[in-house]
Amino acid sequence: MHSRFDRFRSTPLGRQLEALIDSPERYIEFAALSRVGVAAIAAVQDEIGSKFPEIANDATARQFCGAMSAEIMRRHGHELVQARGRVAGPLFSYGAVFSPAPKILSFEHMLLELAAMPGRLAGIVARTPAALWGRREEGTGFSLLEHACHLRDLDEVYRERVRAVATLPLPLLASVDGSALAVARDYPHQDMEAALAAFRCGREALCADLAALAPEQLSRCGLRDGVRRQTLAELVGEMLDHDRTHALELDELLAAIGVPPCARPD
Predict the structure, then answer these.
(1) Whole-model pTM above 0.90?
(2) CATH code, residues 107-257
C-alpha cells in the first residue's frame, strides 16, 4: 500500500479497518463482485458504515479503505478495469472495479507497463492547467506535482534495490516513508517539468537495468525490512503495483480537481 497510509495504518482505527477488510473471506466477496463489474469496496461498505460511523467525516480513513481493498485485489493478480465505478451508498460514491479473474503477467509485459508510466504521467500533466498542479484532494492524497516528485524519487530507491539484489548476497531492503520524503525534499516547491524529465530518464535507466537481468537472477533475494525475503521477480511486481497505485490515485485526483479523466490504455 502507498506509504502515505503507513502512519494511519498504525493507528488503532487503521488497524481495526485493516482487520475488517483484509481477510481470506473478504477476497472471495471482492472477487465475486468483480465478476459482475461492481467495485470491490461495495462488499464491505455496509459493515464499515455500521461499525465505524466516525469515518463518515474522515476522508483519510475512507481513502484507506479503498486502498486496502485495491491492494487485496492486486495481491491476488486482478487488474484494474475501471477506476471509478459507481457505488450505491453514503460512505463511498465510487470504487475501483477489477478484472473478473486474476491475470498472470509475463516479465516482458511488466517491463512494458513500467516503461509506459512516464508518458502516462506526462499526458496527465499536459492536460491539467498549471494552476492545479499543486492542488490536493481532501485527505492525505498527493498533488499532481507531489506524485511526479514521488515517482521520480522512488525510482532511485528501486534502482538501488535491483542492483543490490542482483549483485549482493541477501542485501537489506529498507522501506521508505514516502510522506516523510515529500516533506524533507519540499515537493510542493519543486519544478514540475524538471521532475517529469528526471522521472523519464530514471525510469529508462531502471528499465534498462531490468531488461539486462538474466532469468536466473530473478530468483535472487533481498531481505525486506530485515524479516521477509523478496525475490527480484517480486520486487519488479512491487514496482508495477506501485505504479498502478499511483495511476489509480491520479484518476481520483483528476476527478477531485475537476479535470476530465484520460482514456485508459487497452
Answers:
(1) no
(2) 1.20.120.450
3-state secondary structure of 72: helix
Backbone torsions φ then ψ of 228, nearest 5 degrees: -125, 125
Q: Regarding beta strands 80-86 and 94-98, do their DSSP bridges make them parallel or antiparallel, or are they unpaired?
A: antiparallel
The string of pLDDT tens digits covering residues 196-241 is: 999 999 999 999 999 999 999 999 999 999 999 999 999 999 999 9
pLDDT in tens, 22-56: 988 899 999 999 999 999 999 999 999 999 999 99
Amino acid, res. 167: T
Grid cell digits, residue 137: 484532494
Domain spans of the chain, in order of start: 3-98, 107-257
Amino acid identity at 92: F
- 196: CB partners within 8 A, 6+ apart: 118, 121, 122, 125, 148
223-234 pLDDT tens trace: 999 999 999 999
